[in-house]
Amino acid sequence: MKYFEKLQTGDDATTLEDLDISIHCDVNVFEWLMKYLINPQAQIKILEVGNVISILISADYLQMNKLVDDCVKFIKDYLLDIIKLPIDTNCISPHIFKKLASITEVEVLDEIKERKDKFISKVYMKKLEILLSDENNTLFRCVYCNKLFTHTQKAWMVCPKANIFIDFHGSVIAEHMADRYWNKDKFLLYLRNQGGLSYKEIYYKIESHLITLHCGECDKHFVGAEIGHCIYHSQKAKFGSGSNNGSYQCCGEPAIRFDKVTHGCTAKLHRLASTWETPENKHLFEELIKRQHIIAEPFISEAHYTEQYNELEKEVIKERLSNLKGVDELPLSKIKNSPPLQVLMKMYVGRLEYAESEDEDSVETRRTDTTIDYKKKTTKMKVVEARQSSQKLKDWRLDALRSDDRNQIENMIKKLKKFREDNLNDGSCRSVNKQSKYFYNYRHC
Fold first, then answer.
1. Closest listed residue to residue 209, CA positions, set 226, 185, 228
2. Which of 32, 50, 90, 206 is the most exposed, having the fewest neighbouring CB atoms within 10 Å of its CB?
């Protein structure tokens, strides 16, 4: 018990004979710990599902590291039975969940169905933390297209919205550009709180963006989240006689006869290339297909989620204008069929996020500031609307004046024509010239 080492070292060192211990816990648990000190191997064999959590918490407090590791291994072996117990997960230290996450396979966690999702979700959270702690798994967000990528994936990825340039070898390059203001931790917090995703869904979505495989159908690399993005045209391109330019019959997209770039208006599942068929890659590919309903990013169906979000945003804006309470985020959990990560990323861009470590005073200050900001924005909107209304009124008046002038001129022309017809035959052109001069000056003005 390393907890007592500080009593034997330093200025206040004492002997164990003079030490008084007051126990504020289950005496049976402490008795079990005393027996463990005498015979660890024999005591470990009598660990039970009903007492392992209590022993683990006490062992962690007393800094009995070997016993903590043994208890974590026991929990991993009997995890399905342990989560059925009424456990207060707040009593378990985060580093214990991290140890459990490091030795528990994802396939085991995936098969467990927890009713309240308290214990397993924290294990997934720590598995995600372990996954992203690797430098090779550092995620970046593209400032052009909002996609996620790692440093190694950037070399082969093509950004559809980046500026295109040609290198010295004649290759066309359109690379992602990392957004230096993007915060990964705040985005994960955003997915949990405002995105309505569980830690299990967040883990699988992030993990799928870190997996890189090669397709034998389109001969391109792809990330796990885009397993259904093997694009193709359902009909062949049609070219004119002697022309290298044509169009695809299925969608009308322009086609070039000798173009080597893969295009398509339809998508299907990628097929793992034969050169990449190692046992590890096969396992990853099978797991991606199995979890496709969670990780799959939309192909040309992004408008479905964007449309829902725009309708929801209109409703929330109406609520804000009628009752300003400092709402920070839109309730994304109301969107049907939990939005894909790419859609959530677009919703997150430009929004200010806050960490969970904020105290009550800072939260209250933020709410007050947000309310003031909304009031300022509302006032500004009213001023802009008033200016627009006054401008519309001025335009309407000008249009009305122009209309009156046009009517007067048309009437004057009619009178002049009639006056000429009546007086030209009599030879009295003086009045006509006078009227014509008057008409010219009026029209000129």
1. 226
2. 90
Residue 327's pLDDT band (cuts 50, 70, 90): very low
> Of 304, 151, 294, 142, nearest to 227 (Cα)?
294
Single out the residue of 293, 292, 268, 171 nearest to residue 216, CA to CA: 268
Tell me the β-bridge partners of 213. Answer: 222
Largest alpha-carbon pair distance within the chain? Answer: 144
Strand order in the sheet with 254-256: 237-239, 245-248, 254-256
CA angle 380, 384, 389 (to 5 degrees): 145
d(CA 382, CA 376): 10
Per-residue pLDDT of 235-268, as tens digits, reads 888 888 878 788 888 878 888 776 655 677 888 8
For residue 322, the 8-state DSSP code is: H
Q: Round to whole Å and give the CA distance between 277 and 194.
A: 39
Distance in Å from the first CA to the final CA of the chain: 103
Structure tokens at 79: 């995890």
**Cα–Cα distance for residue pair 388/394, rounded to 1 Å:** 10
* Cβ–Cβ under 8 Å, residues 439 and 427: no
Please give the structure tokens belonging to residue 217: 């159908």
Give the integer Cα–Cα distance in Å for 21 and 62. 13
> Cα separation of 412 and 438, whole Å?
10
Place of tokens 């008795």: 31
